[in-house]
Amino acid sequence: MEPLFAERSGWRRIYVDLPGMGRTPGPEWLTTHDLMLDFVDEFIGTVAGEGCALVGHSYGAQLVRGLLQRDTREYAAAMLLSPGGMQVSEESTDAVVLVDEPGFVEALTAERPFLDLFVVRTWPVLQVVRAQSMPGVLAADYEFLARVNAGPRFSYLAEVPKPFAGPVLICSGRQEPQGYQHICALLHIYPRGTCAILDRTGHLLFAEQPALLATLTNEWLNRAEEYLANRSAGTGSDTPMAQ
Hints:
It is a single chain. The chain has 243 residues and is of the alpha/beta class. It has a single domain (2-95, 141-233), classed as Alpha/Beta hydrolase fold, catalytic domain (Rossmann fold, 3-Layer(aba) Sandwich), CATH 3.40.50.1820. It is built from 9 helices and 6 strands, in the order H-E-H-E-E-H-E-H-H-H-E-H-E-H-H. The strands form 2 sheets. A 4-stranded parallel beta sheet has the order 1-2-5-6, with helices on both faces. A two-stranded parallel sheet has the order 3-4. Helix 7 (181-184) links the parallel strand 5 (168-173) and strand 6 (193-198). It starts with 32 loop residues before the first helix and ends in a 10-residue tail after the last helix. Residues 238-243 have low confidence and may be disordered.
């Protein structure tokens, strides 16, 4: 995200190191996805408060959806990047490879277990994954994460979705292993939502389509700034549209 703010002022960025996924230990009491959501909810209430924009990738996008479901009024905007499928989906597809540079597979080290996620197998993609994803992969507490994943799904998935009035950006790959049509269906609860399904990428969209993702994210930030300005001036509506 940081390159997007090189020429954009007025935003404070807060990056959450989730329990068991980096330097934050996974406590024994945190045993379910709902408790992980409680942790993030409390963290935001402590360090950010109301009016912030939420960004989540993969599992993080599922957490963002849960936060919006709890109280849509607290947040100004949301971005869901490769939200995948904590929900049951019948769309799962076989791995697709669109670009495969010679020697790519042989060059993999700790990334090898994730080979099927690479739709574009080029050196630039591998460099991005190594820089942005692998530190978390290598630091993760997999015993802790397995306990959480063995528990029930997020309880909000069984609830009637609450509409959210703020600007939303949903980005996913056309070759996402868990499909994309159920992701497009989220638009009915986001009246200010843009859903972009990008070809030539799967779950590693941030690495395989970085330029297009940056363009879409910048446009979303513009919409978020406009929405916040209108809300602050009292000229915009905070009330979600009836669905």
